[in-house]
Amino acid sequence: MTHWIIAPIVLPAMLAAFIVLVVRFHQSLARAFSLAGVVMLMIIASGLAWQASDGTIGMYQLGNWAAPFGIVLVADRLSTMMVLLTSVLALFVLLYAIGSGWDKRGQHFHALFQFQMMGIMGAFLTGDIFNLFVFFEVLLIASYGLMIHSGGTRRLRAGTQYVLYNLLGSTLFLFALGAIYAETGTLNMADLAVRVAEIAPDNSTGIRVAAVLLLMVFAIKAAIAPLHFWLPSSYAEAPAPVAALFGIMTKVGAYAIIRIYTLVFPPDLEATAGLFGMWLLPVALVGLAVGMVGVLGTNKLDRLIAFAVIGSMGMLTTAVALFTPAGISAALYYVIHSTLATAALFLIADLVRSGRGAAGLDLRAAPPIAGGAIIAPLFFVAAIAMTGLPPLSGFVGKLLILDASFGTPLVWVTWAVILGSSLIAVVGFSRAGSVVFWKSHQLAAEAVDETTPEDAQGALEPHDPKGHIPVLEVVAIAGLLALLVVHTVLAGPVTRYMDATTAQLFTPEPYIRAVLDVPGKDLSKDPHHADEGHAEDPTEGGHDAAEPEGGH
Amino acid sequence: MEFLFASSVGLLTAAGLYLVFRLRTFPVILGTSLLTYAVNLFLFASGRLTIGAPPILMDGVTHYTDPLPQALVLTAIVISFGMTAVVVVIALGAYLGADDDHVNDPKEEGADT
């Protein structure tokens, strides 16, 4: 049994504690440790992904307790892929946060960032559904701190909404878990898969309720309409690097849907048949439409990107809701694309904001920004990717999803909504881009003599005072976009990898065997249980018993 | 006992939901607290209601209660307590900053009041 599987959780946890306890007053040291941690994380994640790429399912028993009694971590292709994606995203986001100085605008950015990593990694790796809840809470509580990082009334207000909404989501999650436990008597995902399959269809009321509750919880996390209302304000008001990192958090919800609804409640399960397949697809299409119409309707760049996130989650859910291998495979391709594209857009919006002074991110003409010649092309590349125009990966992803939905009864509706909403998104993004980047030059030419309008704040320095080119920031964004290009160029191999991942998801038997068939620690050798005669001796028993019980 | 337990969970949930749909942060936070009480009781009941039985393996005892929901409830209590503390602090910050404790988005600056 390899201990590397737990490394992506332990490393950030230790590092976060170290940063907050030891180097909290040394900004540069905290940066160095945080960056080193993320690089290490990426190396470990690559190793895990490489290990899982031949189809082996890695399994780690915490405390060496056998499943289903102990908690297990499972590293199969899907988990390791998501872990690798998270660590890559985290590296670029962290580079941006350091380059732009966002991490200095409040306290404990790096510690919270590492705790966030811990939560996300744990959520991807765990094989126990209650443990999934716990890691959700870890990543949420870190995200609360990050979301209101550097303060401000508007941000706190949005943060309150975000926390309350997620608190309700967590409560719902607990209700679902209680119902599942009451029905099956287990919380281990592999064991659940076995026991749920044994439930007779005429006695399935409880498990059906639990399945739908659980789907609602994940839909909240994944911002699927009509449960998406928390997203626009939270993402728009969060600091840019945090919003970029949050791009993976909606994917955690999508991952959980894919995992639970292929393993525990597979589409061909009799007890829950026809329960969510029927309405998840229409709901996803509504989300897609709502998101893209929001892109067109909003008047601020950051909210526009937040609505694009809702739209892309709708697109992703459309593919997932097909619950066919082709659909899931397309969804997995789209997950990577959408995470990287969203992150790049949020970071670009932040560069625009810092360059525009008083105008902020309002979609109106303002004096040209410093470095606009670099930022504008970045924006257009990211926008092309996000809206799914050729030649970038958004187009490939959309094509895969359209192709996957071909044989379904709702194919015409699906195609109409996907293509229509893409058109709307293209219009929305090109309007935003031309107002922010092109109108500004027109305005500058017209109003050379006029003084710049004195607004409440920031108008004194409409340009960056030192005229400094944001090198590290641009490198981070360009890195994300370069990954998108790679994702497009290598679409063939990536798609084959996703197909293999999907094949693994749709044959859960090896997963279940890998988790349930491995014996845990030999309880007969446990000093506490070894020999009743010895254990009852107070001097010896007390001394020996302290160790195994200390672990709980 | 089942009826009493179930109706108390239902009552707490109903009261919690009513409060959660209020417009100001304080009732909403109270509502989430009530909901977490409700969910804790619900989790507790998910291992079946048993009275006067030990939750731990002992010699000579044949009638057990399920220990796992108790562990789950313990975890849930800790987490919900922490979360409530966080939301109180954030909501206080928002209230003191804007002198307004509504949950919804503030009106845009240009809009009519």
From TrEMBL, chain A:
Keyword line: Cell membrane, Membrane, Transmembrane, Transmembrane helix
Subcellular location: Cell membrane; Membrane
GO molecular function: NADH dehydrogenase (ubiquinone) activity
Location of the NADH:quinone oxidoreductase/Mrp antiporter transmembrane domain: 128-420
Lineage: Bacteria, Pseudomonadati, Pseudomonadota, Alphaproteobacteria, Rhodobacterales
Annotated family: Belongs to the CPA3 antiporters (TC 2.A.63) subunit D family.
Classification via PANTHER family: NA(+)_H(+) ANTIPORTER SUBUNIT D1 (PTHR42703:SF1), NADH DEHYDROGENASE (PTHR42703)
NCBIfam families recorded: PRK12666.1 (NF009309)
Gene Ontology CC: plasma membrane
One Gene Ontology term from the biological process aspect of the record: ATP synthesis coupled electron transport
Protein name, entry field: Multisubunit potassium/proton antiporter, PhaD subunit
Keyword hit for Glycoprotein: no
Region: Disordered, residue numbers: 522-552
Native source organism of the sequence: Puniceibacterium sediminis
Protein purpose: NDH-1 shuttles electrons from NADH, via FMN and iron-sulfur (Fe-S) centers, to quinones in the respiratory chain. The immediate electron acceptor for the enzyme in this species is believed to be ubiquinone. Couples the redox reaction to proton translocation (for every two electrons transferred, four hydrogen ions are translocated across the cytoplasmic membrane), and thus conserves the redox energy in a proton gradient.
Topological relation to the membrane, as annotated: Multi-pass membrane protein
Transmembrane region(s): 6-25, 32-51, 57-75, 82-99, 119-142, 163-182, 209-231, 243-264, 276-297, 304-324, 330-349, 369-389, 409-429, 471-490
UniProtKB/TrEMBL annotation, chain B:
Membrane-spanning segments: 26-51, 72-96
Any single Gene Ontology cellular-component annotation: plasma membrane
Membrane topology: Multi-pass membrane protein
Any Pfam family hit: Oxidored_q2
Intracellular or extracellular location(s): Cell membrane
UniProt cross-references to Gene3D superfamilies, sorted A to Z: 1.10.287.3510
Zinc found in the keyword field: no
Family matches, as InterPro entries: CPA3_antiporter_subunitC, NUOK/Mnh_C1-like
Keywords: Cell membrane, Membrane, Transmembrane, Transmembrane helix
Family according to the record: Belongs to the CPA3 antiporters (TC 2.A.63) subunit C family.
Protein name stated in the entry: Multisubunit potassium/proton antiporter, PhaC subunit
Organism of origin: Puniceibacterium sediminis
Lineage: Bacteria, Pseudomonadati, Pseudomonadota, Alphaproteobacteria, Rhodobacterales
